[in-house]
Amino acid sequence: MNRSIILGTGSFAPANVVTNEDISRKVETSDLWIRERTGIRERRIASSGESTSDLALEAGRNALRNAALSPADLDGIIVATATPDLTFPSTACLVQARLGIPGTFAFDVNAVCSGFMYALKIADSMIRSGQCETLLVIGAEVMSRFVDWSDRSTCILFGDGAGAVVLGKSGSSQTGGVGTVTLHADGRYWDLIHVPGGGSRSPVETEKPPGNACTIRMKGSETFRMAVRSLEESVREVLKEEGIGVNELDWVVPHQANIRILEALSERLGIPLGRFVVNIDRYGNTSAASIPMALDEAVQDKRIQPGHRILLTAFGSGVTWGSGLVHW
Ligand code: ACO
């Protein structure tokens, strides 16, 4: 049976830093409130010339460089995003064109904040089944374009960025690789976090006034409670499937939605927060980009070492959630 292995990681964030102080000049909030309720200090916001494919491309190039591979080595590209450049074609096709590899397959996956877990599972399955050998899996978002900058309950949360992994077929001499990945969704809760306008149900043109309907609506505290419960259940599901205990995990790389969600998860699972890779303070919630961005950070600063067991876990709009184990 083939296995897949992460050959390289990469990330990219826009240069423009927006602090809590900056936001408190636009809406009634404060640095203290945002830090205490979310753990966020600042986030990166794309400039007017930057869109999701620009961030995805840079993260993908960095992952390829770290894997010592070139675009020509890829069989395909999967981009997890809920904020594509265009309604269609996919952001993956735009990235593929700029990497200069026509003919490779390219498609987007939309599972919002859980998107990277969904993309990873698809890529892993394609490699396991022998359909392909080397894939670029990217999580990329420009959430800031879908934020209502007058809504203080959501505009403080989100940031822009991209993270990527190159996933390859594991050689017989290589240890490690992607293990169990479980995915879940419950569409009955579609309206917990959603963007009402801009789709076929409510196209942009029919909205009056235009624009505002294309921004994020979120039931924050309901989302919070469901996130904690679902994350815990899916982490336990993966541990059971792998036959390991929480003490055998070296790192948890979670979706970065709110530090209090991570604190609650840490307590419920009995895993110290110090073993969580946390960068929400600097990037906010970057949706599908958050796991590969945090993973890349911990790989580059050498917290993650060969032989480590890494647990990835995400919850997002849909609602969707999932967890996975990576043997480094
Ligand atoms: N500054 C000051 N006060 C604020 C702010 C703000 N930025 N935002 C809300 N408040 C106020 C509210 O108006 C409310 O005031 P009231 O009591 O007078 O009515 C009070 O603070 C408490 O509001 P809550 O919404 O109950 O605050 P909570 O502690 O739940 O924090 C938050 C809100 C940060 C949004 C939290 O609920 C959260 O993080 N939820 C989860 C988000 C998440 O996980 N999303 C996941 C995926 S995202 C995706 O998939 C795209």
Number of strand segments:
13
The CATH topology assignment of the largest domain is Peroxisomal Thiolase, Chain A, domain 1
Query: Shape, please?
Result: globular
Straight-line N-to-C gap: 19 Å
Radius of gyration of CA atoms, rounded to a whole number: 19 Å
Per CATH, the class of the largest domain reads Alpha Beta
Distinct ligands: acetyl coenzyme *A
- H-E string: EEHHEHEHEHEHEEEEHEHHHEE
Q: Characterize the biggest β-sheet.
A: 5 strands, mixed
Specify the structural class: alpha/beta
Any guess at the CATH architecture of the largest domain?
3-Layer(aba) Sandwich
Active site: 113, 255, 285
Family: Belongs to the thiolase-like superfamily. FabH family.
Keywords: Acyltransferase, Cytoplasm, Fatty acid biosynthesis, Fatty acid metabolism, Lipid biosynthesis, Lipid metabolism, Multifunctional enzyme, Transferase
Domain Beta-ketoacyl-[acyl-carrier-protein] synthase III N-terminal: 107-187
Short description:
The chain is α/β, with parallel strands linked by helices.
Description:
There is one protein chain. The protein is of the alpha/beta class and 328 residues long. It has 2 domains: 4-169, Thiolase/Chalcone synthase (Peroxisomal Thiolase, Chain A, domain 1); 177-327, Thiolase/Chalcone synthase (Peroxisomal Thiolase, Chain A, domain 1), CATH 3.40.47. It is 32% helix and 23% strand. The chain has helices spanning 20-24, 31-38, 52-66, 91-99, 115-128, 152-155, 220-242, 259-269, 280-283, 290-300, and strands at 4-12, 17-19, 42-44, 76-80, 105-109, 134-142, 160-169, 177-185, 193-194, 217-218, 251-254, 309-316, 320-327. The strands form 4 sheets. The protein has a 5-stranded mixed beta sheet, sandwiched between helices. Strand 4 (76-80), helix 4 (91-99) and strand 5 form a beta-alpha-beta unit. Helix 3 crosses helix 4 (91-99) and helix 7 runs parallel beside helix 8. It is globular, with a radius of gyration of 19 Å. The protein starts with a strand and ends with a strand. Bound molecules: acetyl coenzyme *A. Acetyl coenzyme *A binds at residues 29, 33-34, 37-38, 112-113, 152-153, 156, 193, 220-221, 223-224, 227, 257-258, 261, 285, 287, 316-317.
